[in-house]
Amino acid sequence: MEMTSCCSVFYFRNELAVLQALSSTVQRDPTASHYRFQDDPYLTPRTASEFKLFSLSQESGRNAAKYIINTYPNFFLKDYAEPHIPCLMPESLQPKVTEVCEAGLRELIHLRKVRSAVDMYDRLLQAGTVVSLELTNNLLDLICFYGDQDPVQGDQAEPEKTAEGEVVQDPAPRRKEGRFRKSDSLHRTWRKDNNAERIFHLMPERNERSYGALIRGMVKYGAHSKAFDLYTDMQNNRMAADVHAFNALIAAAPEVRQKYSEKWDLIAEMLKQMNKLGVRPTLLTFNTVLKSLLRCGPLSRALVLQVLGEMKALGIEPSLATYYHILVAFYRQALSPSTLSRTMLTTDLLHSMMDEISGKVFDALDPDDVYFFNYAMNICCSLKDLGLAYRVHSLLNVGDNWKLLGNPSREGFYYGSLFNLVCMMENIGVVLQWYRDLVPSLFYPNSHTMRDLLQALDADNRLDLIPEIWKDVKQLGLATVSGDLAEEVLALMARDEHSPEIQESFANCALAVKAVYGHGEQSQATLDFTASALCNMATILLAAGRTDQAWEILQLFKANNRVPSEKLLDEFLNSAKSGSNSEQAVTLVQMSSSFSLPATARLAQRVEQEFDLSEEQKKALQDVEATSDSDKD
Amino acid sequence: MAAAAMCSVVMSLSRINQRLGVLTLNPVHKGAAYSKGVSVRGRRGGPPSSRPRREAGPPRWEKMTPDQDWTAVYPTAAAFKPSAVPLPIRMGYPVERGVPPAKEGNLELIKIPNFLHLTPAAIKKHCEALRLFCTEWPSALDSDAHCEEHFPIQLESRDYVFAGPSLRNPQARVVTLRVKLSSLNLDDHARKKMIKLVGERYCKKSDTLTLTADRCPLRKQNKDYAFYLLTVLYHESWKTEAWEQEKTVEDMEEYSWEDSPSQRNVLDTLLRMRTLGDSADAAVDTDSVRKELLASSEVQEYAASVSRLKNEGESESSVLQYREAVKKVLRL
User: Fold this and answer.
1) Do A25 and B126 touch (CB under 8 A)?
2) Nearest CA in chain B to A79
3) CA A176 distance to own-chain centroid
4) How many helices (H) and strands (E) does chain B have?
5) Is B60 an interface residue toward A (CB < 8 Å)?
6) Distance (Å, rounded) from C-alpha A27 to C-alpha B160?
7) Mean pLDDT of residues grouped by 10 in chain A (633 residues)?
8) Which of A544, A569, B196, B285 would be A503's cystine partner, CB 3.0–4.6 Å?
9) Is the ipTM of this complex over 0.90?
10) Distance to chain A for B187, nearest Cα, Å
């Protein structure tokens, strides 16, 4: 038999291909919390603040360990790992080269020590050595990137002084992906006596890279007009700026002009010059153009779509940040709370946008990508369009797009608004399905969301699910945040008549709610009893037939200085009548008189008529009537 | 805390007393008895905690639906988590007059390896995902015989996975080479020589030669060494050395009846029987008589049965065959 090719050929596309294929078989588990936590009922976070606390403490533990390894490297030199894992070995953060030379400068630049590098450079110049252009350019890059100050190390956040002289504390850097770190650049401004400018002027020859570095640094730290001056300088020297410098200039354009049309003219001018010099624009260029356009007032609407068209003509694939800017241009007025034109959303831009981008996989190409999903969901909520919201959500589920949702608080907003919309528009079955799917693996609802959920239950007449929801509320720590939820739950339960089993479960739930009020352990947040809450509780308990516990609640009225409603006293009378307990009836009337309720007389009359009273009881009643009469006078 | 407070008090006391030149015993190490007797402020339970102890939440399995995706709950090998597994499992030695302990906090369940991540559903999903990396089985190899014919040599090596600081395992370098001698081109002498050379690496029942190479540190080196060894054995077994002529009867692998004591004995016996019978013909040519006797069928049968007994061992059929042959030879 002829065997032509009887060997099977294995070929791996890359080392991780098998693992990635296997991991693609795993979906999200709806009952589990985030994978980074220990999967144990005591150790998983149950509220949003716990989530933040636990994940931050994990990170801080890691940072602490890294700090110890780097500070005492002599204890961590033995290498157990095979194959060698370089990121687990101690890093040397101190420069090794001590004498004044170019290699020392290079090392300091590599270790990001801005001030020491500038020092070293000055010393090199004093000693007379000529520092190469490339090295000087590297030094300029370093200074401009960090704004002429040392980058903040993780736990050594020193208070920094802003231009106004206030001391601002820098938070520890958080390594969550997609978070736009504004803390560094906002607090630093481009000072007048800058090291970067000084070195720039000291340089014997400057090339485009130096100019570019300086322009970008100036724009980053707020010295916009200076950047434009430098640019004109560059043009006079007949040098061509590169695409990054142009991006920076376009970003700075809205700051240096006042009128909207002038701003746009400046941006257009920049683009023309780019074209003339043959510099090819990138995705970031167009995104910056869009972002600057948003500052140009009413011009933005008209021009934004043109820019998108240009982008496509050049063959650049738009990223989520592009779409975000376009959305802002069109929906910004409609969504702002101050305008009255909320209902005047005459555009269906989002629909056509979703038509275009459904099913596409996006990468993180721009820091503003993370704002898209939140904004889109916000728009869907104002439009009250559930179908559109589902489309946005399905885009999130394509491939790796979920990574573009931003940090956990942004995720919380997104899912919160989605769930609110679903609660408003869908029937209870679908709402509950979403609820079980999203909580607690994807987001922790706040009290607003829970109230929406309760309203949805009410609307669809599924009040029997309230005890379960109350359990969740308690777990989420929302019970004691504000009394509203507890009161609402009690009100919903007390409102209507239900079948006996449901009444039983309601009674148990009411007792659980009661435990939230009153005095818990020391320094636990507790709520004070309110009159309506107590009334509802008593009603529920009476309806379930637990008269003893209902009487206990009556005692609480007095203890907490609350006044029961007349309706409640009527109900108590009814229950006393069904139990033929005249003692209780008389006590009731006495209680109502002690609260000086206007209905006392009526109640007394009722008791006289409906109950068989003994002599002393009748006498007590008459006393009560007398006092109430005298009160009336 | 009470002990620490007492300690500081005692230390200050002792310092004062030392100044006065009075010796005091250090009562701190007397233990609980001392501190309990002196703790006045009622802080036996420790100071009141500033925060109430956090309660454990409900276990996760309460919220799980019966038709959930189990492969998402246990995607990889993980320890047994009683809050995540919805089964009411009990394990361990039964409590006194009771049942084995429940799954919560059960160390026995956590210690043992579990395969909750490899349910049939999970394996099906993995196979579907790995199908991308596989090529088709060659259609020509549709039976064992064909595989044997085209791929006579089988190499076996093992990979070890271990979750520790080091991924290496020294046992992963071992390579085993298996080949059937019938697929090698050996004549009779070469085959016998090969079998003698390899000794107990040859299994007679399955006619397989197994070479295990582990003397080199790397698997590739061991594989090359195994092939080298096979080549050397093959060529050596084809060569005939000068001293192989000195092969004695003890070296023979199997019993051959020619020139054996059995042949001599039976011929002698038969000759003597003959000569007893015909005592008159004294001048008889013994050689030709021997040859004639050898050629006779009874003697051949006897030879066959003796060879069979010696080569294959004793079994009922071979012993019976020997009995028949002897009876025929001795004409009983």
Assistant:
1) yes
2) B165
3) 12
4) 12, 4
5) yes
6) 28
7) 51 79 88 88 87 93 92 87 84 78 85 86 86 87 84 52 36 39 57 80 84 87 86 87 88 86 87 86 88 83 85 87 86 68 62 85 85 88 86 85 83 88 87 86 84 85 83 80 79 79 82 72 61 80 78 77 77 76 76 76 77 76 72 55
8) A544
9) no
10) 26
